[in-house]
Design brief:
By secondary structure, the chain is mainly beta. It has six helices and 25 strands. The protein is elongated and about 80 Å long.
Length: about 350
């Protein structure tokens, strides 16, 4: 292979693909990026065996070819090359020569035949949607507990109300409804794939085992989580009749401030709710205590409930600026958070003993 390409185009190509490469992989080929020059198009492909990212750019190729080279080495070199320069890539006999101006480096390569193939066929559902925006409000609740692997992603499924994205770790839950995409299979998209989603509308294809999105010249294909997502509707209370309304930013900042003195393990904050206000209190025998009062609209008997302060601040931050509604039943039942500004979003937070 021998080709010339603007440094900015090569840097963009690598940035869009090699983010899937694991830095500590023990399989040498998985630390590489596959580069293929064919008919004036340079295509880069990277994978971790669960997700594959492929992207292409136009390049002036004197000789087509394909090879694998260390993703991190090539990326570091390209990032540090002077801007507005053309980069020449020439590969022969297992060595890639990288030239830009007076700079030259030579990198060891592996044959393209060693690169793992990622079969991606059998897609039965196709639709266009802003998938990143659909999952953004709920991905905070994705579980990191590997034993319950079926919670390590976002559950996407069709309902009469529209396309629904749900995530939960057993302590908190987020549900986001977007416009309908028609009949699609219910799938669980892995946490890593969710983190790689590009902004804007993408073309989505689904099979029983894989999901593929196409955004411009970039294609991301991922295995789905093979498991059964729990019946999350049973977790969402419908009879919480104690309604508290407060300002989103005020609550998030207050929870964050009082949690400074909480223990790292518990991080429990007690909310004492009375007419006109909510008092947040943390008491840590080892370090001290903190309280803060915020204004709130509430009419009813005083009620106290405890939450993980970090979870509370993060959950409230998923809603836009303005008022947020907290619906409670009692101190031991799940609490429901909603906002008139985003009626399509609902979050649930389990209480803690304080």
């Amino acid at each position: 292979m021998r080709l010339s390409i603007p440094r900015s185009d090569l840097a963009r190509l690598l940035a869009s693909t090699i983010k899937v490469v694991e830095s500590n992989t023990r399989i040498p080929i998985l630390s590489t990026v596959l580069l293929v020059a064919d008919g004036g198009i340079l295509t880069a492909t990277a994978t971790d065996l669960d997700i594959e990212i492929q992207s292409s750019v136009i390049a002036e190729a004197e000789e087509d070819g394909a090879f694998c080279v260390s993703a991190s080495l090539l990326d570091d070199i390209v990032k540090k090359l002077p801007a507005n320069q053309d980069v020449t890539l020439a590969e022969s006999d297992g060595v890639l020569t990288v030239k830009a101006g007076r700079y030259t480096s030579r990198l060891q390569t592996l044959p393209d035949s060693d690169f793992p193939s990622f079969s991606a066929d059998g897609f039965t559902a196709h639709f266009d949607v802003d998938l990143a925006a659909a999952v953004a409000p709920v991905k905070f609740a994705i579980s990191t507990e590997e034993t319950r692997y079926y919670l390590n992603g976002v559950y996407l499924h069709a309902t009469p109300d529209g396309l629904v994205a749900v995530a939960t770790d057993g302590h908190r839950l987020g549900k986001h409804v977007i416009a309908s995409a028609g009949e699609i299979p219910a799938v669980i998209m892995p946490r890593k794939f969710v983190g790689l989603l590009p902004a804007g509308t993408v073309s989505v294809s689904l099979s029983d085992t894989k999901v593929r999105i196409t955004s411009g010249e970039t294609v991301i294909t991922s295995k789905l989580i093979d498991g059964t997502f729990p019946d999350y509707q049973r977790v969402i209370p419908t009879g919480n009749d104690k309604i508290v309304v407060f300002d989103t930013a005020t609550m998030a900042k207050a929870a964050d401030r009082v949690s400074i003195v909480s223990s790292e393990r518990g991080r429990a904050v007690k909310l004492s709710i009375t007419e006109g206000q909510v008092t947040l209190a943390v008491n840590n025998p080892d370090s001290g205590s903190a309280t803060e009062e915020i204004a709130a609209a509430y009419e009813g008997k005083p009620i106290e409930i405890g939450f993980n302060s970090a979870y509370l601040a993060e959950l409230v931050g998923r809603f836009p600026a303005g008022d947020i509604r907290l619906a409670l039943a009692d101190a031991g039942s799940p609490a429901v958070f909603t906002s008139d500004k985003t009626p399509e979003l609902l979050c649930v937070l389990m209480p803690m003993r304080v």
